[in-house]
Amino acid sequence: DTGVSQNPRHKITKRGQNVTFRCDPISEHNRLYWYRQTLGQGPEFLTYFQNEAQLEKSRLLSDRFSAERPKGSFSTLEIQRTEQGDSAMYLCASSPDGAGQGANGELFFGEGSRLTVL
Amino acid sequence: QKEVEQDPGPLSVPEGAIVSLNCTYSNSAFQYFMWYRQYSRKGPELLMYTYSSGNKEDGRFTAQVDKSSKYISLFIRDSQPSDSATYLCATNYGGATNKLIFGTGTLLAVQP
Fold first, then answer.
1. What letter would DSSP give residue A28?
2. Which residues in chain B have Cβ-Cβ distances shorter than 8 Å to A109?
3. Cβ contact (<8 Å) for A95 and B98?
């Protein structure tokens, strides 16, 4: 399967702990996105990478959140000092260059990493 | 006010019914309009994409955009139990980022 891969699929942690999620995009895709989805809501944009450069961050991404894509391939999303409000599905998506510029705007999503903060 | 509003549902229909799913958006700068389907515990997948006002058909699915009223619709004909999922409308400004703005999603259940 050459789709977007996310790990772990589910993480349960206690409040105050740090967690890290990993995303492996489709190999030829230069663009990588992180979204957050809470129950009964649509995905909300968190941040976007073009290769290794983080080009945009949402105001939702507080200073407890950090995302990296060190070699322009896989990405990690770390949440420090987790809070119960961080409980959500964290979705990673990738797309090739040119998507959105008159292309079909398709993002290819992984199955998500579900975070439960107790 | 959210940038994209979507009828919350949930919606339950019998197999074979015609389903209508709707969204409205607030910003006339939005250029591209999409419908994503999300099965339980899965990531969203693109179902339909439109750019201009009008209709676009793909099999049993028809996407409709009315830019004058800022209204987006998805119609499903001859609905099947396998169509049971959450349907998310989405839009973006175009341009390089391709950052999508999603509606809240409508949960659809098609009863056999």
1. T
2. 43-45
3. yes
How far is CA B63 from each of CA A38, B22, B35, B48, B93, rounded to the nearest angstrom?
Answer: 26, 10, 8, 7, 19
- Which of A104, A113, A114, A116 would you mutate first to test chain B, the one with the most B CBs within 10 A? A104
**What's the CA gap between A10 and A12, in Å, rounded?**
7
| Consecutive 10-residue averages of pLDDT for chain A (118 residues) | 90 98 94 94 93 91 94 94 97 80 72 97
Total count of residues recorded for chain B: 112
**Cα A98 vs. chain centroid, distance in angstroms?**
20
d(CA B88, CA B102): 6
- Is B43–A33 a contact, with Cβ atoms under 8 angstroms apart? no
Cα(A80)–Cα(B44) distance, integer angstroms = 27
Can you tell me the distance from the alpha carbon of A69 to that of B105, in angstroms, rounded to the nearest whole number?
29
Judge contact between A6 and A113, C-beta under 8 A.
yes
Residues in contact with B112: Cβ distance below 8 Å, sequence separation at least 6, in sequence order? B15, B81
Q: Which of A54, A31, A34, A53 is nearest to A44 (CA)?
A: A34
Q: Tens digits of per-residue pLDDT, B14-67?
A: 999 999 999 999 988 888 899 999 999 899 999 988 887 888 999 999 999 999
Of B1, B56, B52, nearest in space to B24 by CA: B1
